[in-house]
């Protein structure tokens, strides 16, 4: 009998594809991608990739055609499929926002009362405004939403924004955020035990990659007079490693610090007398 494989659906080409493939490669999973291939099997991990349009991914995972999928939360939430979100992946970050013509005076959400809004996300748009007691008419269109106000289709739009550049070049301004989105790993909610086991292995690898991305390896020199002060600033995974240097009274300290408070810690280290500070990226971090 063939050993069990898990089947994962990823976007064939678009704003999720590159980062999705990069993540699985960083997890040490080898596979061929690119070209016109719609399906490929990894040579060193029990996983099969399906390359699809992103809109089809939640449905395939719900139906069990694929066991897992990578999808933007925005698409998932719009269609309310019965699947589990097993991991937030931290890439393809964007927001679903309401935008109006730049020369309009925005008076708060009441501005939208009774208005026509063009969007590819009618459910999320209506749910958000309805909660605020605002009734609108949504017009569902699948692309180039930002053109709607200038051609008289709607007075406002609700669309995906990352930098706001597209809105600006279409004479629109962003006035309210409806939903913050990122890529998520979804799973069919009836995986058998063998597949759950493969998923657990995959999640362990993703966690290790993500932890590495959120941390930096720091090496520095310190004089013994400053050692206590500097050690206190470096929590590390347990505590910093301290190694004596050939120069008497000097030590080399190795530690891991989080990306979030990186600059603050570096500044405090310098003030505390740290010298020759080296900062290195971490490829993976296994706990
Ligand atoms: P497909 O051909 O697969 O249907 P698509 O055109 O519907 O692709 P893309 O534009 O590739 O979709 O976007 C896929 C997802 O990437 C979106 O659903 C959203 O989650 C995210 N995304 C969209 N725009 C941006 C952006 N400007 N920056 C970052 N992420 C984005
Ligand atoms: Mg799509």
Number of contiguous helices:
8
Low-confidence parts? none
* Number of self-contained structural domains: 3
Order of helices and strands: EHEEHEHEEEHEEHEEHEHEEHE
Q: What is the chains' assembly state? A: single chain
Kindly name the structural category: alpha/beta
Mean pLDDT: 95
* Overall geometry: flat
Biggest sheet, open or closed, and with what strands and sense?
A: 6 strands, mixed
- From the 3D structure, determine the CATH topology of the largest domain: D-Maltodextrin-Binding Protein, domain 2
Heterogens: adenosine-5'-triphosphate, magnesium ion
Provide the gyration radius in Å.
25 Å
Helix content: 25-40%
The CATH architecture name of the largest domain reads: 3-Layer(aba) Sandwich
User: Biggest sheet: strands side by side, in what order?
Assistant: 2-3-1-4-11-5
Under CATH at level 1, the class of the largest domain stands as: Alpha Beta
Question: What is the CA-CA span between the terminal residues?
Answer: 35 Å
How large a portion of the residues is in β-strands, by DSSP E?
25-35%
**How would you name the CATH homologous superfamily of the largest domain?**
Periplasmic binding protein-like II
Overall number of strands: 15
């Amino acid at each position: 009998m063939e050993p069990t494989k898990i089947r994962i659906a990823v976007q064939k080409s678009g704003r999720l594809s590159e980062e999705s493939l990069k993540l699985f490669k960083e997890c040490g999973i080898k596979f061929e991608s690119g070209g016109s291939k719609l399906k490929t099997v990894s040579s060193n991990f029990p996983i099969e990739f399906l390359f699809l349009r992103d809109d089809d991914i939640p449905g395939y995972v719900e139906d069990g055609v694929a066991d897992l999928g990578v999808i933007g939360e925005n698409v998932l939430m719009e269609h309310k499929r019965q699947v589990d979100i097993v991991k937030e992946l931290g890439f393809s970050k964007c927001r679903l926002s309401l935008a109006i013509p730049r020369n309009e005076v925005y008076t708060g959400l009441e501005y939208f009362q009774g208005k026509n809004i063009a969007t590819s996300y009618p459910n999320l748009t209506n749910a958000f405004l309805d909660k605020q007691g605002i009734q609108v008419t949504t017009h569902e269109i699948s692309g180039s939403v930002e053109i709607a106000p200038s051609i008289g289709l709607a007075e406002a739009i609700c669309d995906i924004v990352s930098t706001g550049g597209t809105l600006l070049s279409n004479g629109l301004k962003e006035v309210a955020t409806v939903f913050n989105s990122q890529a998520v790993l979804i799973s069919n909610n009836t995986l058998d035990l063998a597949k759950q086991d493969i998923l657990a292995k995959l999640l362990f690898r993703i966690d290790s990659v993500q932890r590495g991305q959120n941390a930096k390896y720091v090496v520095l020199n310190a004089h013994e007079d400053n050692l206590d002060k500097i050690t206190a600033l470096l929590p590390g995974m347990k505590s910093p490693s301290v190694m004596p240097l050939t120069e008497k009274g000097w030590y080399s300290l190795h530690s891991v610090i989080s990306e979030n408070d990186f600059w603050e810690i570096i500044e405090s280290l310098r003030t505390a007398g740290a010298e020759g500070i080296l900062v290195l990226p971490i490829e993976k971090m296994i706990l």
